[in-house]
Amino acid sequence: MAQRQSTPPAVLACGEIRTCLLPARQALDIRSAAQLIGLRADERVLLSERPGLYARSPDTLTGVDCPLPSANGARIRAVGTVAAHAALTEGRVLQTSAHCRLPATGPDQRRPWGEYLVRPGVVEPLGKLPYEAVAQGVLAGPRHGDLDVGLIADGLLTRLLRHPLLDQRPPFRSRPTRLRWAALPAGAGEGPSIERFTLAEDELRTVRLRVPEGTADADLAALCDDLALHDWLLTTVVHMLDGLRLGAGAAQDTGAVVRTLRPAVDHLLHLWMPRARVAAELAALWDPLEERPGFTRQWQALVQRIRDQLTLHAIPAPHREVEPAP
């Protein structure tokens, strides 16, 4: 067996997450959730019932040997493994995530595969890593043939969506979202921060972060999973409301309003729990998102609109009696 090798400090971590509604009429119970995302026979699925039902698969590894994305066109070859996992929240929202970290420097020549396998989730450059150009390239999207962790997350999602446990009958229509992230080291004495959070086209979000050196890969991945989950919830509820003509003077079909908004109450409104599974060292990264754009303020306003509309359409219209003609 190859001996574990020491890894130089990482100057960049990156990943991509897919979030979607599970295509099943009924939410999965905890046992079925474990069956769905049991990706490895040698490791158990992590299960939690507090503060809500949550299941997270063990990591799987994908070997890569390809150029890194780069904003300046540099062709930096890198070799290693990308870690991927799946998570299911309340038996209803499915996420797949792929991520890796990149050291500042690597060897000038490719090592034997065994030496990469003992460093899971590390993709090592051949030579020096131009980390700023690579971070920009990751967030802009890889070119054909470049390292693309999103493809790995996509592949895992496709595999899970074909599972025989799923009847392919979701309770309402929704769109999947993608969150692409890159994290660089924070300065000496500085805490974690979000430098930029961007809503892009085609349901894509990009996040650029700074985190203290030594931040655990699992903690960073959990933070980004949490951001992706809550962004998906906001996006999905906004689309529900956008499909209705609300307001004074709008012709309202009570049945259509209830059919459109009731699934939000049944399946989504109780899922809003920012930071519930984020490490204490990274929980402060939610603060700027609560200030601007104000994730929870927007969520609370949407929830109130839904409840107001359901209440309004549950009240029968006043009956006006008409006097018979003399």
Automatic annotation (TrEMBL):
It comes from the Bacteria. InterPro entries: SCO2521-like (IPR049749). This is SCO2521 family protein. It comes from Streptomyces lienomycini. The lineage of its organism: Bacteria, Bacillati, Actinomycetota, Actinomycetes, Kitasatosporales.
